Amino acid sequence: MSWRVGIDIGGTFTDFALLREGAVVLEKTLSTPDDPSRAVMAGLEKLAAREGLSLRELLGRLEALVHATTIADNTLIESKGACTGLLTTEGFRDELELRRGYKEDIWDVRLAPPPALVPRRRRLGVPERLRADGSVAKPLDEVAARAAIRRLARHGVESVAISLLFSFVNPAHERRLAALVAEEMPGVPISLSHEVMPKAPEFERTSTTVVNAYVGPRLAGYLDRLTDRLRQAGLARELLVMQSSGGVMTREYLRGAPVRSLASGPAGGVIGAALFGASKQEPDLLCVDMGGTSYDVSVVRRGQAPAQPGWNWHHRYVIGLPMVSVETLGAGGGSLCSARNGVLRVGPESAGADPGPVCYGRGGTHPTVTDAMLVLGLLSEQSEFAGGSFRLSRKGVDEAFRTHVAGPLGCSVEQAAFDCWRVVNANMTQAVRRWTSQRGIDPRELAMVAYGGNGPLFAAIQAQDLGIDRVLVPRTSPAFSALGALAAPPSVDEERSHLVTARAADPARLRALFGELLERARRALGGAGFAPAQITCRYQMSLRYPGQNWSLAIEVAERTAAEDPSFLDEALRDRAVAAFHGRHEEEYGHARPGEEPELTGVRLLSSVATPKPAFGAGFTAAPRRAEPAATRSANLGRGYEPTPVYRGAALGPGATLAAPAIIEETYTTIAVYPGWEARVDDASDYVLSRARS
User: Fold this and answer.
1) What is the pLDDT of residue 292?
2) CA distance 620 to 654
3) What span, in angstroms and rounded, lies between the C-alpha atoms of 362 and 351?
4) What is the rounded average pLDDT for all residues in the chain?
5) 416: Cα separation from own chain's centroid
6) Residue 123 Cα to chain centre, angstroms
7) What whole-number distance in Å separates Cα of residue 459 and Cα of residue 451?
8) What is the pLDDT of residues 373-400, one digit of tens each?
9) What's 373-398 look like in SS3?
């Protein structure tokens, strides 16, 4: 029997999805921020018990254990990374702070720059210089380098980033500088830009390397602790970690570039959503994931969620590596509600897992969105919460709202809770509008797929505000990112810079660059147990018109890793140029076929096909009106009124529900707002649509 487990650590809950011969088993535990591995082990024990196994038996039978996490993201958000130092080419230490003159909102005169991960006193220039072709213009001054390194040591630096000009062409100076750091500061982690991101331009490369150095020690320490615990508990397989590119890879591969795990939790959800949408004949999706701490939004077009390299701004820092595009907002079930100077605020601060919302009964005193949902009747004290882990309690909730919201605003507790619902919904809807408009996407052309523990509570009302007529809610939505991680293939996605006019690109040089990438992919995926014949390689060239800042990746071939890139010739290069003109026309509405484009680099996407979760589709079951299990007073936007409550476990294919209605699943609650109706399809997933007038 094939057993596979996906894990996703969030700010409030840690989610688990076990895939066994097509059956899916979900589990949740409260996260343990002081040591996330404790929640992972506790959840695995609960999964094993549900399967009638010991933890050792379960881990010994696993074919794959895939882990997505937001630890690197939380490290950035909370500014709790390592004390980091930067060594760079003399005269370039301020490049990080200049940020290419980029500002997220040019109209916000009060927008402060992001906190410096490396303050100026720990950004030191070293005398050396390489030319663009990699030749040495100025040798490395080792005496000055040692002095700079000792200065970093006096500042208590715990992690060192090294980023020198054109090191991706000739890494000799970076490697020597790393050797000097190892001599002067033994045991300190070192991030080298030519290893983390071996391509131009220098600002993106330096920023990515600094973020890697900043989040690396905390993430590496966590993964090492978790791996040790799993080994001791009986795990025989390699732990696979979700990457921001939408693939998974071994712990060893990520050891040199932990920055690749940024946003790996949300990326897992998007990969799962693309597969889920394809099964429902919905290739164009707006993906919304609302958990306990954050709200993530992304888009799937034509059934794909491609990872885009280059200008990826994440938590206000640029990451030049391939990332599935996800926008994150501080809005979740644990978002704190407060009134300041007569203005109601919801988030971005969160109660997290400890103490959590007031209604958890774990010592929380500040009202949250979850508390507001309890007051409004969308959640209930009588219902089991988080799979029966505990029950919510109204005790202390009213007093918290009176103290922090209702009292300052001069309204009732019920009105305060409803206003909090309105504000958090408006925040999320506005974030979707802003993010999609910046990318030229009209959300009305998309279907929405909602997941996460709280996503289905708000999905229909958000869709209504955005002009979307159809919402898909997977039955597995509470742990959908964990399940999505099981849909992600083991993959290596790497690039190399090579700046030259397209037709001047030497095929022999291209074969050498691709050969280097191919060898790295063979080693990395071979270390995970895959043979070259199992590895599919997609060869891409990055092209742009002269004067443009950004390139388009043009796929030129697909082969297995068992084949060398000897097939690359001038004819293939010329076909890539022709394809670029057509792609540019498609993407931007114009092309300049009379102008010769520039080649900026090559990219190799190597992956292995693995078993994926199966999502069913269709409505072959005859429609039947579902019977509610109970009725309770709830406010779904029209004031408090008797509202039917349905138990998800009792709803089979064909069940239909009219609004207003509340559906209680094991780990989530679905709200069917006025003007909507819900139906259960053949796979027992929910489809919400605008009611026919």
Assistant:
1) 80
2) 8
3) 11
4) 90
5) 32
6) 29
7) 9
8) 999 999 988 776 666 667 889 999 999 9
9) HHHHCCCCCCCEECCCCEECCCCCHH
